[in-house]
């Protein structure tokens, strides 16, 4: 019965979300963790001091527990922060989910997108170049779990280009509520958000809007491009090495010498 009442309230709130949307924490009860315990893959990069633990308290642009459009982002300075000097290839991304609240039997779409942006460029959507995107659908009751999205993206020049990773879900007429996974354990770079529904058009430091303890859980799995080691040229003036014969070559040479000797003896006779 409580579930039916909650669904009715959510549906009624959906009609007025455009007028009532604001950044706030999840008003819905957060269920115990769902899914399997999370173990980060290796090698990986993260800005999270604790990339595993999730706690309730994330914010999102919403109204009455119904989500508006939400972008949650991190910008990775591949060279400066992670010492990457050659092409970096993303293979997947792990991100946290605090809570998914939808009608029973339905799912909510959550996308993870990768972008590149010039090092030093202002952090705006206009300055970002899309690399890849993937979407997964999550059922009602998904709670306090780290999930993996198989998504790619290559940063060819990490010395002059940064990597941006985004969790996104759109505003929709369907009534659902989504809150990203976070904790307050610390981070080496800011967490960012944007939402047209809350009048923030470009990525903005979450701390700057009054939520300094919301640190997005995000781990990027990837590999640095293997660069072949060139064979050094011989020193100037060095003699060319004498080619060595294989065992077959030695046998062939012996047979040739024996053949020549037999031929010479036959001619003399």
Note the gap between the termini.
Answer: 118 Å
Give, in order, the helices and strands.
HHEEEEEHEEEEEEEEEEEEH
User: Count of DSSP E strands?
Assistant: 17
Low-confidence stretches: 1-19
Folded structure, characterized:
The structure is a single chain. The chain is an alpha+beta fold and 269 residues long. It has one domain. It has helices at residues 2-14, 17-20, 78-82, 247-268; strands at residues 22-25, 44-46, 59-63, 66-67, 70-76, 88-101, 107-118, 128-139, 143-149, 153-155, 161-169, 177-180, 182-183, 192-195, 200-205, 215-216, 218-224. The strands form 4 sheets. Strands 2, 6, 9, 10, 12 and 17 form a 6-stranded antiparallel beta sheet that branches. The protein has a 6-stranded antiparallel beta sheet with strand order 8-7-11-5-14-15. Residues 1-19 have low confidence and may be disordered.
Task: Give a short synopsis of this structure.
The chain is of the alpha+beta class. The chain has helices at 2-14, 17-20, 78-82, 247-268; strands at 22-25, 44-46, 59-63, 66-67, 70-76, 88-101, 107-118, 128-139, 143-149, 153-155, 161-169, 177-180, 182-183, 192-195, 200-205, 215-216, 218-224.
Topology diagram in text:
Blueprint: H1 2-14, H2 17-20, E1 22-25, E2 44-46, E3 59-63, E4 66-67, E5 70-76, H3 78-82, E6 88-101, E7 107-118, E8 128-139, E9 143-149, E10 153-155, E11 161-169, E12 177-180, E13 182-183, E14 192-195, E15 200-205, E16 215-216, E17 218-224, H4 247-268
Antiparallel strand pairs: 1-3, 2-17, 3-4, 5-11, 5-14, 6-9, 6-10, 6-12, 6-17, 7-8, 7-11, 13-16, 14-15
Features:
4 helices; six-stranded antiparallel β-sheet; 17 strands; disordered N terminus; 16% helix; single chain; alpha+beta; 269 residues
């Amino acid at each position: 019965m409580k579930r039916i009442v909650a669904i009715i309230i959510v549906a009624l709130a959906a009609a007025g979300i455009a007028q009532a949307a604001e950044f706030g924490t999840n008003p819905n009860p957060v269920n115990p963790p769902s899914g399997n315990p999370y173990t980060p893959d290796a090698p990986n990069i993260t800005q999270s001091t604790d990339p595993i633990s999730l706690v309730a308290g994330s914010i999102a642009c919403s109204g009455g527990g119904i989500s508006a459009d939400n972008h949650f982002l991190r910008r990775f300075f591949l060279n400066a922060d992670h010492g990457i000097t050659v092409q970096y290839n993303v293979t997947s991304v792990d991100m946290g989910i605090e809570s998914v609240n939808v009608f029973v039997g339905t799912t909510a779409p959550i996308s993870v997108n990768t972008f590149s942006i010039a090092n030093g460029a202002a952090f705006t959507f206009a300055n970002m170049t899309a690399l890849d995107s993937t979407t997964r659908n999550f059922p009602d009751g998904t709670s306090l779990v780290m999930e993996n999205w198989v998504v790619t993206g290559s940063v060819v020049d990490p010395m002059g280009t940064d990597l941006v990773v985004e969790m996104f879900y759109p505003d929709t007429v369907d009534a659902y509520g989504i809150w990203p996974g976070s904790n307050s354990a610390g981070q080496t770079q800011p967490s960012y958000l944007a939402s047209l529904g809350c009048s923030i058009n470009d990525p903005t430091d979450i701390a700057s809007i009054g939520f300094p303890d919301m640190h997005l859980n995000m781990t990027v799995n990837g590999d640095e491009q293997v660069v072949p080691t060139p064979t050094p040229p011989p020193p100037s003036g060095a003699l060319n090495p004498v080619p060595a014969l294989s065992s077959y070559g030695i046998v062939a040479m012996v047979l040739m010498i024996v053949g020549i000797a037999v031929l010479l003896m036959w001619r003399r006779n």
